[in-house]
Amino acid sequence: MNSPESLIARILKWAFALFIAAIVLRWTVCIIMEIWWVLVLLAAIGIGIYVAFRVWKSRHGGQW
Hints:
Blueprint: H1 4-59
């Protein structure tokens, strides 16, 4: 059976890991909230290029 010290050490390691994960997740959310409009703009441009290519291809004898 494990000694109490190792159990306490494991609990502290898990608590520290969860704390770091929470901080990183919070930073990630903050960064995404700052640049969400850039991501939406890039997605819209990508979708527009894809649709334009498919329309161009279908008008020049290609198959959908």
